[in-house]
Task: structure prediction
Amino acid sequence: MSDVSFFEFAFSHVLLMLGCMLLTSLLAYLAVRRRTVLGYMDPLHFYWTFTFGTAYGVVLALYVGGYVDSFYFAVVMAYAGVFLLSFRMGFYLRSGLHSVVGVFLVPRGKGRFEFYFVLLAYSLLALFLMWKTGFGVNAESNRFEQNRGVGAFVRVADGFRLFILSYLALMCFERWRAHKRGLITWGLVSFYLGLLVLSSLLNGAKFAILEGIYASLFALAVQGYRLRLGIGKVFAIFSVVLFFAIWVLSRNLEQAGVDDASTGVYMQETPILYERLALRVLANADKYYLSLPNGVIEDLKTDSALIQLLAPLVSITKMSELVGHPVNDYTVGRQALLYWYPDYDVAGGPTSHFDLFSYKYFGLAPGLLFAAFIGFFLSAIASLSRFDGGPFYAAICATLWLRSIPVLLEPATGLAYVLDIFTLFFIVKLFGALLRGSSLQSAKVGA
Result:
């Protein structure tokens, strides 16, 4: 089913679509609510409850409308069920991952020196990216196209960004609780807020500012600080996030030469800006409506699961050179897009989602095992929050959690993000240890 056909169906069956999306989102929320660290403010709810909840609602509506075969509907639900079962069971297992993080990634003490080193590294990366590509929010087509050739730098910057925001939030909160509310504290708070906004503009994603807030709250929770966020505060946070998302969308339309005050195509009495926002929510299911109706998914091309899993680790460009074809064109989401629009040559497109990736690259039964692996993997990362290892550890946990959940959207990319964090912060710890060792040696010689 093409985009046009789907949107015509969606806007002519608004009540069915909304009803199905609300139902599946509610069920998605109930399925994980007892396994989230931050309750209803946990980032898992953005990815699972909102993104997958609304996507599954679209699948259900298409199934009710007769566009999706019972077999594919059952496949999607089976993968969801296996993921949820393994995710819940994973919390009863001891992975030992916290020991690995503590030994290889976390320096002694509060890790202030390592924090300032990461802050310096991020600042240099941010300046380089602003010079090379500009702010992501100003991308002419999309931020993926804009970041061609500098993707590795963007990934490093995004990982460092979340860690810095998490650690800064802890510094601010510790000073506030200790009643140190003078000029330094207000300066730190101002720096945190400024960095939150500027780094989100550089990232360019509509989710960027919420991602930074999520990481900060998660780090505070790991450190034992439970913020009491009432309805008013939550509403204020999400109002800011929604304003940011609408503003970014407005900038995107402006860069594309579209007047955001013009009327919509499908919602003809609504400004196109708000229609595009509605379409963006429906696009959570783009890989499903492009591939499931009429069994299109069976006609999508694949290369090798190993190539797909390794490509983000060694770089998409280099892997494409090694194998002789554009590796990124063989993700399930991208293939679904190219099936309908074979001349589409702009970077980006639908993500694959773990269920479609599992089914297409591993087959039905082995794919269920891969879905179970995803569940256990995420529960192992989330379980890091049970242990107290100081502010540096808490910030690492927040960073790992925010960088691991995208495994649901694009498994290979999500796994690569996590490996990025382990590699980067192992280097940071090693660098800090070497400098401390050389400083100590110099002090002994001087004595």
Observations:
- The mean pLDDT is 86.
- DSSP finds 20 helices and no strands in the chain.
